[in-house]
Amino acid sequence: MWSFFARDPIKDFNYEILPENQEKSGIWTLSRGKRKTTGEPVSVFVYEVSQGTEEQTQLAKAAFKRTKTLRHPNILSYVDGLETEKSLYIVTEPVTTLAAHLKLQAEKGGASDLEVSWGLHQIVKALSFLVNDCHLNHNNLGMWAVFVDRAGEWKLGGLDHVTSNQGESTSLPPPKVINPDLERYDPPESPGGGGDKWTGDVWRLGCLIWEVFNGNLPRASSLRSLGKIPKQLVPHYCELVGANPKIRPNPARFLLNCRSPGGFMNNSFVESCLFLEEIQIKEPAEKQQFFQDLSENLDSFPENFCKHKVLPQLLTAFEFGNAGAVVLTPLFKVGKYLSAEEYQQKIIPVIVKMFSSTDRAMRIRLLQQMEQFIQYLNEAAVNSQIFPHVVHGFTDTNPAIREQTVKSMLLLAPKLNETNLNQELMRHFARLQARDDQGPIRCNTTVCLGKIAPYLNAGMRQRVLISAFSRATKDPFPASRAAGVLGFAATHQYYSVVESASRILPTLCTLTVDPDKNVRDQAFKAIKSFLSKLETVSEDPSKLAEIEKDVTALAQTGGSAATWAGWAVTGVSSLTSKLIRNAPAGSEAPPAENSPVPQSAAGPAPTNTASKGVQQDRSYVSCQRLCPMDLAESFSPTPRSKEGVRLASDYNWDGAEGKSATSDLFSSVSQRSTTVKNRKCFTNNHAFTPSGLSKAELAKKKREERRKELEAKRAERKAAKGPLKLGARKLD
């Protein structure tokens, strides 16, 4: 009667068993399952009492007890269980059988020796724990008793026949009674026929090694044929399957032998795995060195191991271990193995948090490697959580960070909203172009502005591009002037024919007498392009609408300016860094060889001079040999004087009288250049004269000559008048 009101315990079980992909493992059926509340994946071992014999039921109950009580990192992890009159359920971490795992790996080309070496290391370590620490014999070691988790790590299971090795009596039947096919895995000696307590288990370990490399063991005599067993493992394998049980090594001894120099388990993968197991007790310096070396080894590690074993440790090291920038390189390498959903879930939150770090090494490493994760960032996160931190790099005192911040805008621009792109970013670009003392950064700013032009709205393009590129053509750094010319050419579709004729061509024509041949060459090419455009309209005015169709085109919402094949900022400017170290700031260099200034018939052309206090960059000679694609890569920055340059605080950033603040800034920079020209400075702001001296040096030389002339005249007057008399008045 009471059984009618009793509740079925299966209904209260917290786990759901999935019917697909069921595997047979001894007397158990291995099924996939999940936790009902969270959906967390698990594995469920099910034994039906009605389908088994009394001996099998006895073994199932013994296995349930052993699995629940034995805890070790290399033994199958028990999560939950349920025992009823009809069935037994053991819930463990999600695993698959070793046989199924090796079959899957064989379809992909076979399991690597590195993976097998670590797997065997784990099984031997678990066996050593049972034999030496727990004083137990496994008695059931084989392919059917080894399982593999999501990370590819091997776990020892099949605890059905575990017995004590201290002489206690047991009523459990041996494996061959339950399954006669297992008799071929028994050692040749009779039970109790001599040898140590572990001799039977290490013999079965030898059988397991043979099957891992050669497949199913047909008979015991096949153990004599080595097959595909690696040479490094052969001598130790032969000890395991030796006929004399007294020479079979203890599992711990076998492990030491294989870990000796030149041994099968002495490799970078096993070393890395052992370090990860003990990483919580390692010193910070050891962790830093490990993560630095890890990047080089990750390419040879199994993919699942990187995803499920290395990645959690990297995230933990950043969150709680203060590992810093050193984890970024291995983190992004592992990220390549993740799906888009996994990347969003696991790595993006960490990256967003990294951008708020004040560690300069962290910030510059993030900027350098942004290309690896930018596609996973959504626009909301970029505008609200990343861009506000990135823009601090524009004002950083470290030139390398400013340079990488500018380059990162090529990747961030397609994801920026209207305010951040057309106002905030343009404000920083204008300040860099006007004030930055590093030539390469001014050059990269010009290059980047041209490359992100398709993303600017039409009004901003109209106000900013011509002013910015005109300013670049008057920069003392030759590559910046070349970048300005190339900027005009690459964005030609955004200018009306009136602007081309009245504003752009006059600016380009002044560069036809530039001291730098590369700048002159680019100027002539650009002039021909714009003239061709004007000639086309002049010949057929009906084509005006087609030519100016992009002038008011809407901004691009995604993609990239892929049409800029000939003008690119690529990679990290390592050569720039080298030149920065080698070139002392503030030094001057003579004009480049083979770069004469063309002279007109009326006389020598005016020499381009720099703005007051601005010196020529030291890499002037070096960049003559560079092609346009190298513009942003190989320049040596030199400090610019702040005299004569308006500070950022002097500009009206708020945009008074309905005019864009950024437009005011770029326009004011252009007006400042005109003022310099009105002061009778030369056209292109170069401080070098045809004599080879800079303007400052020439002025200093003239002052010195004038001083000597005055001293000579005073001496002549004194000599003519003779010595002064007492009381005489000195007239000069």
From TrEMBL:
<keyword id="KW-0175">Coiled coil</keyword>
<dbReference type="Pfam" id="PF02985">
    <property type="entry name" value="HEAT"/>
</dbReference>
<comment type="similarity">
    <text>Belongs to the protein kinase superfamily.</text>
</comment>
<dbReference type="InterPro" id="IPR000357">
    <property type="entry name" value="HEAT"/>
</dbReference>
<dbReference type="GO" id="GO:0005524">
    <property type="term" value="F:ATP binding"/>
</dbReference>
<dbReference type="InterPro" id="IPR021133">
    <property type="entry name" value="HEAT_type_2"/>
</dbReference>
<dbReference type="Pfam" id="PF00069">
    <property type="entry name" value="Pkinase"/>
</dbReference>
<comment type="function">
    <text>Regulates COPI-mediated retrograde protein traffic at the interface between the Golgi apparatus and the endoplasmic reticulum. Involved in the maintenance of the Golgi apparatus morphology.</text>
</comment>
<dbReference type="InterPro" id="IPR011009">
    <property type="entry name" value="Kinase-like_dom_sf"/>
</dbReference>
<dbReference type="InterPro" id="IPR011989">
    <property type="entry name" value="ARM-like"/>
</dbReference>
<dbReference type="InterPro" id="IPR000719">
    <property type="entry name" value="Prot_kinase_dom"/>
</dbReference>
<feature type="region of interest" description="Disordered">
    <location>
        <begin position="693"/>
        <end position="732"/>
    </location>
</feature>
<feature type="region of interest" description="Disordered">
    <location>
        <begin position="583"/>
        <end position="616"/>
    </location>
</feature>
<dbReference type="GO" id="GO:0004672">
    <property type="term" value="F:protein kinase activity"/>
</dbReference>
<protein>
    <recommendedName>
        <fullName>N-terminal kinase-like protein</fullName>
    </recommendedName>
</protein>
<feature type="compositionally biased region" description="Basic and acidic residues">
    <location>
        <begin position="706"/>
        <end position="719"/>
    </location>
</feature>
<dbReference type="InterPro" id="IPR051177">
    <property type="entry name" value="CIK-Related_Protein"/>
</dbReference>
<feature type="domain" description="Protein kinase">
    <location>
        <begin position="1"/>
        <end position="311"/>
    </location>
</feature>
<keyword id="KW-0677">Repeat</keyword>
<feature type="repeat" description="HEAT">
    <location>
        <begin position="386"/>
        <end position="424"/>
    </location>
</feature>
<dbReference type="InterPro" id="IPR016024">
    <property type="entry name" value="ARM-type_fold"/>
</dbReference>
<feature type="compositionally biased region" description="Polar residues">
    <location>
        <begin position="606"/>
        <end position="616"/>
    </location>
</feature>
